[in-house]
From TrEMBL:
Domain Reverse transcriptase Ty1/copia-type: residue ranges: 69-312
InterPro entries in alphabetical order: DNA/RNA_pol_sf (IPR043502), RVT_2 (IPR013103)
Organism expressing this protein natively: Cuscuta europaea
Full protein name: Reverse transcriptase Ty1/copia-type domain-containing protein
One Pfam entry name: RVT_2
Length: 559
């Protein structure tokens, strides 16, 4: 036997993962994406809807509700009648998470066939102002009141018509015994010119008879005040918010209202007109997360790279940029959506106001600026305004102007942001109507605009039986403008703004307004007058109360 062979150690075969069919996963393949289930597409015609059972059920529910409400009666046709048409409109209603809430079929009258003075007279119907909503929510959160939301079923159908209106029978539901008869409408129907007003008048009459008073500052706000009990009711067509200092009184009135009108009590405020509301023990967070994501999907910008600011300081938008024209229909559609988004996003107010000035002749450069706003929103979809419960009810405002910033007309841009305590309740960014001869004049006009809004807010608070602890303060970074507000002597360069002068000067003189100088870097309305660099813009954004929801609600229990 070979001695070398006997001394050689025995080697066992190496055991590896691959030999045992064990493979270590590659980290790059661990990334996965959950695709959102697309919402069902609503049919556009009766013929399409009639093929699907859930849409047939939805139409039957609508017809049943119309008959139950005695919306019309069938009468023989007459040559003197102006018979208008009707059509079915279908919509998939979604929950905040994108899931299907219900399939809604609505019978709509073709109101464009109506004749003024014959089929209708008055048509105007008010809706609640955004600032009113924010003010009432601020008061409710500060006082820890319950906030409930209601949805009126078939609201327009509950309004009584004072004019005679004739309509064709709806497709799919023609009376077999009277196929040639027409509908004489007794109640309003969606699509009629006077339908919104008829519903508002019906609701208003009931509320006034129930002891409510109509606010003089906003006629869509109703107040009930008796022996220490306060109820506030906000109306936006068929959506209602109700709050008050007694939960039992709130619930009791909801029961009374439901006995008069068919409605759904949706519980605590959570989703109102595209606004998502998250309440905690420390405050209320308002955002338009879903609305923003839907807008990004509609414009195919959901996968775009985000940017830190909505507009670059180097962008100088002009009517005469020499670029090729862009489709005005799409441009206006997206701008309209952005304007609605500014309900909770004052950080985009300036750029949206600027881009809206080119609606009549947008160019490709203007559209590129719109896409930049969308890219900014892509990175901030979860942002919104935070209404803190722990804040005083003092009023103050920041007013600013960018002198001659418009390169086409040399008009200035006025802006203001108004707060109750730390909570922003009203803001505006608007081009001035005349050319200012100096920065003092431009800033002074901005102060006048803020003062007018403050006057309206104080009147609204008076209607709500709320008294701020002291006179409001307007902060301005132009020292000369603050002097003009308190100086009774006209300057030769300011005499042509006498109306604004007397208005603001009178407020300051009687002690109902204070105008105070503030350093430019603390002027929170600055971001609403012109593009800012990233660092300053982000600083102003957080001070305006525009924050991510995760930061606002961190460490606080949700209610």
């Amino acid at each position: 036997m070979n001695s070398h062979a006997s001394s050689k150690p025995l080697l066992s075969p190496r055991i590896t993962r691959s030999k045992n069919n064990i493979f270590k996963p590659n980290p790059k393949y661990a990334l996965h994406t959950t695709l959102q289930t697309p919402a069902p597409v609503a049919p556009t015609t009766f013929k399409q809807a009639n093929l699907l059972p859930h849409w047939r059920t939805a139409m039957q529910e609508e017809i049943t509700a119309l008959h139950k409400n005695q919306t019309w009666s069938l009468i023989p046709p007459d040559s003197t009648q102006n018979v208008i048409g009707c059509k079915w409109v279908f919509r998939v209603k979604q929950n905040p998470d994108g899931s299907v809430a219900r399939y809604k079929a609505r019978l709509v009258a073709k109101g464009f066939h109506q004749r003024p003075g014959v089929d209708f007279t008055d048509t105007f119907s008010p809706v609640v102002k955004p600032a009113t909503v924010r003010i009432v929510l601020t008061l409710a959160v500060t006082h820890h009141w319950p906030i409930r939301q209601l949805d009126v079923n078939n609201a327009f159908l509950q309004g009584t018509l004072s004019d005679k209106v004739f309509m064709q029978q709806p497709s799919g539901f023609v009376d077999p015994n009277h196929p040639s008869h027409v509908c004489l409408l007794h109640k309003a129907l969606y699509g009629l010119r006077q339908a919104p007003r008829a519903w508002y008048c019906e609701l208003r009459t009931y509320l006034l008879a129930s002891g409510f008073t109509n606010s003089k500052s906003d006629v869509s706000l109703f107040i009930h005040h008796t022996s220490g009990c306060l109820l506030f009711l906000l109306v936006y067509v068929d959506d209602i918010i109700i709050t008050g200092n007694s939960e039992s009184t709130v619930l009791s009135f909801i029961t009374r209202l439901a006995s008069r009108f068919s409605l759904k009590d949706l519980g605590s405020l959570s989703y109102f007109l595209g606004l998502e509301a998250l309440r905690s023990s420390s405050g209320l967070f308002l955002s338009q997360n879903k609305y923003t994501r839907d807008l990004l999907s509609r414009t195919n910008m959901q996968d775009a790279s985000s940017v830190p600011t909505p507009i670059s300081p180097n962008d100088h938008l002009s009517l005469k940029d020499g670029a090729a024209p862009y489709d005005p229909k799409e441009y206006r559609s997206v701008l309209g959506a952005l304007q609605y988004l500014a309900f909770t996003r004052p950080d985009i107010s300036f750029v949206v106001n600027k881009l809206a000035q080119f609606m009549h002749c947008p160019s490709t450069l203007h559209w590129q600026a719109v896409k930049r706003v969308l890219r900014y929103l892509k990175g901030t979809t979860h942002f919104g305004i935070y209404i803190s419960a722990h804040t005083p009810l003092s009023l103050h405002a920041f007013a600013d102007a960018d002198w001659a910033g418009d390169t086409d007309t040399r008009h200035s841009t006025s802006a203001y942001v108004i707060f109750i305590g730390r909570n922003p309740i009203s803001w505006s960014s608007k081009k001035q109507t005349t050319v200012a001869r100096s920065s003092t004049e431009a800033e002074y006009r901005a102060i006048a605009g803020a003062t007018a809004e403050l006057t309206w807010i104080r009147n609204l608070l008076k209607d709500l039986h709320i008294s701020p602890p002291r006179a409001p303060t307007v902060y301005c970074d132009n020292l000369s403008a603050t002097y003009v507000c308190a100086n009774p002597v006209f300057h030769s360069r300011m005499k042509h703004v006498a109306i604004d002068f007397h208005f603001v000067r009178e407020q300051v003189a009687n002690g109902s307004l204070r105008v105070v100088h503030v350093p430019t870097h603390d002027q929170l309305a600055d971001s609403l007058t012109k593009p800012l660099h990233r660092k300053l813009f982000l600083s102003h954004r957080s001070k305006l109360g525009i924050l991510p929801g995760s930061l606002c609600l961190r460490g606080h229990d949700r209610i």
